[in-house]
Every structure is written in structure tokens, then in C-alpha cells.
């Protein structure tokens, strides 16, 4: 290849500088739009409550303050309990869910499994038709007696038909049959094949599912709304939702607003900056889940493993 | 390497599962006993007291943010009521925003409970009563609820009848609605403004003008204010189907077609144009922040006796109000807070006995509303108390029982509850008090009308839109969405209801 101009080497992998700059600008702008609201929430959580009331939301607040955080750390028994509950259900839920999903999906991916069609449909059917809210509630709360237990937060989300289908497809396409056969030739049992051969090379798929599970467990509030009555089992997102919904409720019931009744409701809500601080504390840790799962995405490549 | 990891992972799952199982089996067995059936061992404990009757455990759902010390207060309550009515209560408080949805599921799934909070604005009383979710109380009230009948103003029970029967017990609190203009006294004094003689929205013009000249940076009306038009509204969400309060022929009209409505909206629009309201008032979702900053002159609120004191102590500066009309008892104001008994409750008589205590026993109601003496509040006089700040207990007192038996705050005037009684007695009944619309035949039209209303309601009633131009359009839109059919149907029901009453 000839250099385009003398003195300047031309790299075919590079975009023209103008395009390069434009695309960078576009991507950078988009990234900024995505991240700005969160940065703003962080700033607001460090704003002085009175300054917020007097001057409204400011990017550079009139007065900085760590009031909201000191308040939370002093009185936030509930917050830290909820932290514990969320972390517990996220860890246990993810492990359990990944385990069950992988086993189910692996069975479906094996072409010599006799009832493959039936069990695929069995899972797929639940994607199309759900039981509805009240029957689900009756099953969980009354038949299984899970009300007010941690299991009510874990089990309803432990199996997800969508995850099964995704992982089954991944296993079918990414795990070459000859690898399984080679295991058989060497005399490996089914379990050994699964854990020593299939799982290592399908880590990217499993990690994806694990990431999905982690996020959905971390962000789940609806199960808690339905099944949890006692304060010491309320997860973090549910705690935030309660505050949010109570706010909405008071605003939308403006007929009650300003009467003796809404007074008592408003007094029970945390202040604006405190709410922002809670959002920061609730979202912060889950950000670290991404780099944790990231490293699995590049492992387990099967290129060159099989020569057809 | 992977093998090791997997084994550890699996081991963790299994370990966690077994730990959790242990927890949940403990909880599960508790859950089983939370039913209405009394626990066997509990029965054994109290056999000495009443040999033939086992104590009953009542499950009571009520609204409010659950306080930390709920359990403590609940235990104290049980210790007191067990010898009295041979029953215990399990208080389950659900947060404001969750309450309606959670109760809906609870009721629909047939989950056992005995008593539940209900009202016109959360866990809809009228809908549930019509569905048959609540126990019919007529006979029980006579039998076990004499204390309640004595405590309550008859209009309370009259206004909450559904199909001629009682299904819920209203809190004994302010019964009528009285809308007031509320003023920031600091601002009034500072600028030498006089509010005597104010009664209607039009009377405010000179005050607002003078205020704007002196304080041009502060919008005198900081948020959308609730309107008052002299009509009784049979359907809460649709404030245009109304009956004049002084009606004699009981004919419904479209309120938004009346000259009063036009005049009100024109005044609001004038005020908006003059800059008395913030520019973005129609889309504001502010829950009263201006109250904290003190940068406002006037808004609208619903009053009760000595409400000015209440507001002033909240705000930290003096707040005064002038009424727009005499107190009127509406259906929705009467059903502002009630307790009902589950239709499937196994012990409705015990539930009624407990509710009766809430209306007659000062100890019980003060315990529930304010907590334990010297832990959550201290008494400062025979009938007054000071709450201890951050004590870990708080309960929305207006949601339950007889408010007139509760202790006053130290600063309150001693005749507060007498004033409440007088306020309740002074109320005129709205023409439709006790009438409930049956919406089964008109649900589609109602939903359409509601959507049509929501589209412009806030911008019209905050004065943002010019009513001359827009109100006729809105009225036409309402007509297109089946207003006439709904009015006919409701009118028919009203005629029927009146015929039955005679």
C-alpha cells in the first residue's frame, strides 16, 4: 500500500479525521446525556436543603452540605437493613437462578434428549400466558405460605423462560457436538461433561444470564410490595418505591392536600436531599456488577477447538 | 480451576438454601398462625380467665408509614384489651402509596383479615361495599356498637350508607368540608394588606394587585388552587356533573356550562395573565414546598376548627384563613376515613367490640394514636400531651376511632373538640348526601370522560387557558364522549333514590 501523501502514513483502519471527530462528538454527547441525570442527582444529594428550597435545582448549588448523608447514617436503620436484604436476595437469587436456568437450558440444548420439545414448550408457554396477579398471589402467599419470607422475593423470579430460551440457543450454537462426543469417548459421565467441558466454554452466555438476574433481583420492588408486610424484610428498591409512591399519592390527591390529613403524610416523608442521597446509595453498588461480569465475556472462546 | 469454583458456588447455594429454609420454616409457621384461628398455646395461657371461650386474634390492616415501635405499642394494646374483650389485635400498617393496591390483592385473593381501613380516596369504600367485600354492620352496630352510635354525628353514618346499609365506621373527626383562602400573615402585615371582607375569588383582586406592586418577585399564588363551585358532585373524578347545593328539583346540570364556572375561570385567567401565578403552574407537581420557604401570599385549603393554629405551627410563621362558604357535609368528606369489617371475617362480633373500644375508651385510642406514655409522649395536663421527638412511633390519628377522645397538644385551645362538635353540627347536608352512583352501566363513558377532563383540567383551572375560547370546546368534547348518557343514567338513579327515601 502506498502512503497517500508523502510524510504522512495513511492507515486503512482509521476514519478521516473529520468523521472521527464528529462521531466522537456524537458518542460523547450521547454518553453525557446518559450520565448527566445521575451526576445531577449526586450533586443534589450534596446540596443544602434550604438552598434547594430557596433557589431550586442548581448544577452548582448555593451551598454544599453532607447533611443528607449524616442524617441517613444516623437514622437509617431501615436503609441498612434493606441493603442487607437486597444484597442477600441478589446473591442467593442469582446463584440459584443461574444454576436452575443452566441445567434446564443444557438439557434442552442436547439433541438426544427425548422430551426436548415438550419441555421447550413448557417453558415457552409461560412467556405467552401468565397466571395474572391474583392467582399468582394466591399461589405464593396462601398455597406456598411464602408471605413475609425472603423466599417470596427469590422464588417468583428464580426461573425466567426468556433466559432459558436465550441460554438454550447459545448452548446449541456455541457448544459443538463433537466436544461432547469427545468427552464421551474419554469416558466422562454426563455431569463431568457438563461441568468440565460445557460450562467453561459457555461462560459468556452464563455470565450474561447472571448479569440479567443480578439486575432484576437488585431492582425488584413489586414482589416486596405484594408479599412483604414487615419492615425488616423490605429490600432497597421497594423502600425507594414506597417513598416515591407516597409522594405521588399525596400530589394526586390534591383534595386532601393542605388539610390536616396530608400534613401527617408529608411529615412522614424524608426531605428532598435525603431522597436523592438514598437514590445514590441504592444505585451505587450495582454499578460494580458490570466490571465483575465483564471479564467472563471474553473467556471461553471455542475457535479452533473442533476441526471438522 | 473451574471445577473448584463451581463446587464452591454450588456449596454456597446449598448452604444458603438450607439457612433460608430454616428461617422461612420458622416464619412460615408464624404465617400459619396469623390466620383468624387463635393459637392453641395462646388459648392454653388464658384458659384461667375464660374457660369456655378461646381468645380471638383479629388482623387489622390500616394505612400509614409503619413506625419502628409498632410492635411494642401493639403488645401494650393487646395486654389491655385481652381481659376486656377476650381478643387480641395484630396491627398491620401499609404505607400510603401501597395501601390501595395491596388491599385490592388481599381482598381479591380472599386472604384472611378482620378489619381494614377504607375511605373515598384509598381502598375505595363505596366500590368495595357494593362488591360485598365488607360485612354489613346494621345489626352488629345495634348489638355491640352502642358506643359508636353515641359518639358519631348521625350524618356520618347517613352519608356512608351503601344501598341503605352500613358497611364502614367513619372516624369521628371534622365532618363537613369548608374550603378557605389561606394567607401568609407575615406577608400581609409587611405590606399592610387587609383581608376582611374576602369571600369569593373575585374579592382578591385588589389584594393581589397591591401585593404585586410591593413584592414583584414573588408570585402571590404559588400553586394551582382548588376551586369551589356551589355544586354537589356525585362522581368525584368528574367535577362537571353537579347538582346545585340549593336545589329543589334535584336535576343534574353540567357545571362547566354555568355562568358561575365561566366567571371563576375568567377571573383565574385574568390573575394568570397578570402574573399572580407562576408561569408553569399547570404542570407543577410541588407538594407544598412554598410553605417551607414562606414565599407566598395565598392558597386554598380545607379547614377544620383551629386549623390556623395547626398550619402556623407547621409553617413556623403565622397563617390565617377566611372561609369561602359555610360548612357542608358531602359524601366524600363524610367518608374521609373509615374502618370496615371483612365480609369473610370469622369473628365480626369481636371486631365490632374492638372498634367500639376505639370510640369509647380513651386509653385505647390514645395508645394507638400517640403510643406509650413516657416512651412516645409525656402528659402535660389532664387532657394534653407533648410528643417526644424521634421516639419511634407515629400514627395518622385521623384514620381511626374517635378523635375527640384523644389528648390535645399542649398549645391547643382546651375547647378544640367542643369546637369540632359545633362545627359538625353547623354543617348543612349536601343534597346528595347518602346517594351512591352505580357505575356498572356507564364504565366506558366514565373512562372516556375522565380522559377528556384530564387533558385540559389543570390548564383551565389554573387560569393558563382562556376559558372564553376553550371552555365551549371542552364542553363539546365532553358531549362527544357520552356526557349526556352518563347524566341521564345518574339522574335516573337519583330519582329512584329519592323515591325510595320517602
TrEMBL record, chain A:
<protein>
    <submittedName>
        <fullName>Carbohydrate ABC transporter permease</fullName>
    </submittedName>
</protein>
<feature type="transmembrane region" description="Helical">
    <location>
        <begin position="21"/>
        <end position="46"/>
    </location>
</feature>
<dbReference type="GO" id="GO:0055085">
    <property type="term" value="P:transmembrane transport"/>
</dbReference>
<dbReference type="InterPro" id="IPR000515">
    <property type="entry name" value="MetI-like"/>
</dbReference>
<feature type="domain" description="ABC transmembrane type-1">
    <location>
        <begin position="83"/>
        <end position="287"/>
    </location>
</feature>
<feature type="transmembrane region" description="Helical">
    <location>
        <begin position="275"/>
        <end position="293"/>
    </location>
</feature>
<dbReference type="GO" id="GO:0005886">
    <property type="term" value="C:plasma membrane"/>
</dbReference>
<keyword id="KW-1133">Transmembrane helix</keyword>
<dbReference type="Pfam" id="PF00528">
    <property type="entry name" value="BPD_transp_1"/>
</dbReference>
<keyword id="KW-0813">Transport</keyword>
<dbReference type="InterPro" id="IPR035906">
    <property type="entry name" value="MetI-like_sf"/>
</dbReference>
<feature type="transmembrane region" description="Helical">
    <location>
        <begin position="83"/>
        <end position="106"/>
    </location>
</feature>
<feature type="transmembrane region" description="Helical">
    <location>
        <begin position="118"/>
        <end position="138"/>
    </location>
</feature>
<keyword id="KW-1003">Cell membrane</keyword>
<feature type="transmembrane region" description="Helical">
    <location>
        <begin position="193"/>
        <end position="218"/>
    </location>
</feature>
<keyword id="KW-0812">Transmembrane</keyword>
<feature type="transmembrane region" description="Helical">
    <location>
        <begin position="150"/>
        <end position="171"/>
    </location>
</feature>
<comment type="similarity">
    <text>Belongs to the binding-protein-dependent transport system permease family.</text>
</comment>
<keyword id="KW-0472">Membrane</keyword>
TrEMBL record, chain B:
<protein>
    <submittedName>
        <fullName>Extracellular solute-binding protein</fullName>
    </submittedName>
</protein>
<feature type="signal peptide">
    <location>
        <begin position="1"/>
        <end position="21"/>
    </location>
</feature>
<feature type="domain" description="DUF3502">
    <location>
        <begin position="431"/>
        <end position="499"/>
    </location>
</feature>
<dbReference type="InterPro" id="IPR022627">
    <property type="entry name" value="DUF3502"/>
</dbReference>
<keyword id="KW-0732">Signal</keyword>
<dbReference type="Pfam" id="PF12010">
    <property type="entry name" value="DUF3502"/>
</dbReference>
<dbReference type="InterPro" id="IPR050490">
    <property type="entry name" value="Bact_solute-bd_prot1"/>
</dbReference>
<feature type="region of interest" description="Disordered">
    <location>
        <begin position="26"/>
        <end position="52"/>
    </location>
</feature>
<dbReference type="Pfam" id="PF01547">
    <property type="entry name" value="SBP_bac_1"/>
</dbReference>
<dbReference type="InterPro" id="IPR006059">
    <property type="entry name" value="SBP"/>
</dbReference>
Amino acid at each position: 500500500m502506498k502512503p497517500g501523501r508523502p510524510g504522512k502514513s495513511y492507515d486503512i483502519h482509521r476514519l478521516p479525521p473529520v468523521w472521527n471527530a464528529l462521531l466522537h462528538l456524537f458518542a460523547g454527547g450521547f454518553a453525557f446525556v446518559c450520565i448527566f441525570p445521575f451526576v445531577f442527582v449526586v450533586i443534589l444529594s450534596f446540596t443544602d436543603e434550604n438552598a434547594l428550597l430557596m433557589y431550586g435545582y442548581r448544577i452548582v448549588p448555593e451551598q454544599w452540605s453532607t447533611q443528607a448523608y449524616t442524617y441517613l447514617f444516623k437514622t437509617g436503620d431501615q436503609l441498612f437493613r434493606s441493603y442487607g436484604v437486597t444484597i442477600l436476595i441478589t446473591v442467593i437469587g442469582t446463584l440459584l437462578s443461574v444454576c436452575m436456568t443452566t441445567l434446564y437450558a443444557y438439557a434442552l440444548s442436547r439433541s438426544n434428549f427425548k422430551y426436548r420439545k415438550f419441555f421447550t414448550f413448557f417453558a415457552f408457554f409461560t412467556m405467552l400466558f401468565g397466571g395474572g396477579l391474583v392467582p399468582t398471589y394466591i399461589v405464593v402467599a396462601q398455597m406456598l405460605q411464602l408471605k413475609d419470607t425472603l423466599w417470596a422475593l427469590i422464588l417468583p423470579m428464580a426461573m425466567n423462560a426468556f433466559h432459558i430460551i436465550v441460554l438454550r440457543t447459545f448452548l446449541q450454537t456455541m457448544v459443538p457436538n463433537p466436544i461432547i462426543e469427545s468427552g464421551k469417548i474419554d469416558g466422562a459421565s454426563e455431569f463431568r461433561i457438563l461441568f468440565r467441558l460445557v460450562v467453561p466454554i459457555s461462560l459468556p452466555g452464563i455470565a450474561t444470564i447472571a448479569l440479567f438476574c443480578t439486575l432484576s433481583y437488585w431492582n425488584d420492588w413489586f414482589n416486596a410490595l405484594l408479599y412483604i408486610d414487615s419492615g425488616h424484610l423490605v429490600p432497597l428498591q421497594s423502600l425507594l418505591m414506597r417513598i416515591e409512591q407516597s409522594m405521588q399519592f399525596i400530589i394526586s390527591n390534591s383534595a386532601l392536600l393542605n388539610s390536616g390529613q396530608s400534613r401527617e403524610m408529608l411529615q412522614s416523608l424524608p426531605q428532598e436531599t435525603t431522597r436523592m442521597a438514598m437514590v445514590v446509595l441504592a444505585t451505587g453498588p450495582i454499578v460494580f456488577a458490570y466490571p465483575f461480569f465483564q471479564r467472563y465475556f471474553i473467556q471461553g472462546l471455542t475457535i479452533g477447538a473442533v476441526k471438522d | 480451576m473451574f471445577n473448584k469454583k463451581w463446587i464452591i458456588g454450588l456449596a454456597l447455594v446449598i448452604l444458603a438454601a438450607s439457612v433460608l429454609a430454616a428461617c422461612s420454616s420458622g416464619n412460615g409457621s408464624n404465617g400459619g398462625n396469623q390466620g383468624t384461628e387463635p393459637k392453641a398455646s395462646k388459648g392454653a395461657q388464658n384458659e384461667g380467665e375464660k374457660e369456655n371461650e378461646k381468645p380471638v386474634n383479629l388482623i387489622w390492616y390500616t394505612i400509614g408509614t409503619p413506625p419502628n415501635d409498632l410492635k411494642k405499642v401493639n403488645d401494650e394494646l393487646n395486654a389491655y384489651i385481652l381481659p376486656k374483650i377476650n381478643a387480641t389485635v395484630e396491627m398491620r400498617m401499609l404505607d400510603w402509596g401501597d395501601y390501595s393496591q395491596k388491599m385490592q390483592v388481599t381482598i381479591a385473593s380472599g386472604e384472611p383479615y378482620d378489619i381494614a381501613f377504607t375511605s373515598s380516596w384509598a381502598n375505595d369504600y363505596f366500590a368495595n361495599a357494593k362488591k360485598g367485600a365488607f360485612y354489613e354492620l346494621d345489626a352488629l352496630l345495634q348489638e355491640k356498637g352502642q358506643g359508636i352510635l353515641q359518639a358519631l354525628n348521625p350524618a356520618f353514618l347517613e352519608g356512608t350508607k351503601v344501598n341503605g346499609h352500613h358497611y364502614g365506621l367513619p372516624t369521628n373527626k371534622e365532618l363537613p368540608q369548608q374550603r378557605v383562602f389561606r394567607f401568609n400573615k407575615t406577608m400581609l402585615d409587611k405590606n399592610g394588606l387587609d383581608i376582611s371582607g374576602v369571600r369569593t375569588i373575585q374579592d382578591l383582586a385588589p389584594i393581589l394587585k397591591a401585593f404585586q406592586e410591593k413584592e414583584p418577585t414573588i408570585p402571590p399564588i404559588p400553586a394551582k388552587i382548588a376551586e369551589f363551585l356551589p355544586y354537589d358532585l356525585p362522581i368525584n373524578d368528574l367535577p362537571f356533573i353537579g347538582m346545585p347545593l340549593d336545589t329543589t328539583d334535584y336535576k343534574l346540570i353540567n357545571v362547566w356550562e354555568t355562568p358561575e364556572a365561566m366567571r371563576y375561570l375568567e377571573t383565574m385567567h385574568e390573575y394568570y395573565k397578570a402574573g399572580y401565578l407562576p408561569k408553569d403552574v399547570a404542570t407543577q407537581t410541588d407538594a407544598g414546598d412554598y410553605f417551607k420557604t414562606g414565599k407566598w401570599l395565598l392558597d386554598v385549603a380545607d379547614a377544620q376548627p383551629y386549623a390556623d393554629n395547626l398550619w402556623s405551627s407547621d409553617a413556623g410563621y403565622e397563617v390565617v384563613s377566611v372561609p369561602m362558604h359555610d360548612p357542608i357535609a358531602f359524601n366524600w368528606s363524610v367518608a374521609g376515613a373509615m374502618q370496615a369489617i371483612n365480609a369473610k371475617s370469622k369473628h365480626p362480633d369481636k371486631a365490632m367490640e374492638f372498634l367500639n373500644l376505639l370510640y369509647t375508651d380513651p386509653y385505647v385510642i390514645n395508645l394507638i394514636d400517640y403510643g406509650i406514655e413516657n416512651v412516645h409522649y409525656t402528659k402535660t395536663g389532664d387532657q394534653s400531651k407533648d410528643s417526644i421527638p424521634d421516639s419511634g412511633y407515629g400514627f395518622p390519628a385521623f384514620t381511626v376511632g374517635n378523635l375527640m377522645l384523644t389528648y390535645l397538644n399542649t398549645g391547643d385551645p382546651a375547647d378544640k373538640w367542643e369546637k369540632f362538635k359545633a362545627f359538625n353540627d353547623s354543617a348543612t347536608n349536601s343534597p346528595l348526601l347518602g346517594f351512591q352512583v352505580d357505575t356498572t352501566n356507564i364504565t366506558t363513558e366514565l373512562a372516556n370522560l375522565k380522559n377528556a377532563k384530564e387533558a385540559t383540567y389543570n390548564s383551565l383551572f389554573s387560569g393558563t387557558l382562556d376559558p372564553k375560547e376553550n371552555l365551549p370546546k371542552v364542553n363539546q368534547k365532553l358531549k362527544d364522549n357520552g356526557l349526556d348518557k352518563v347524566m341521564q343514567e345518574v339522574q335516573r338513579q337519583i330519582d329512584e333514590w329519592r323515591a325510595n327515601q320517602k
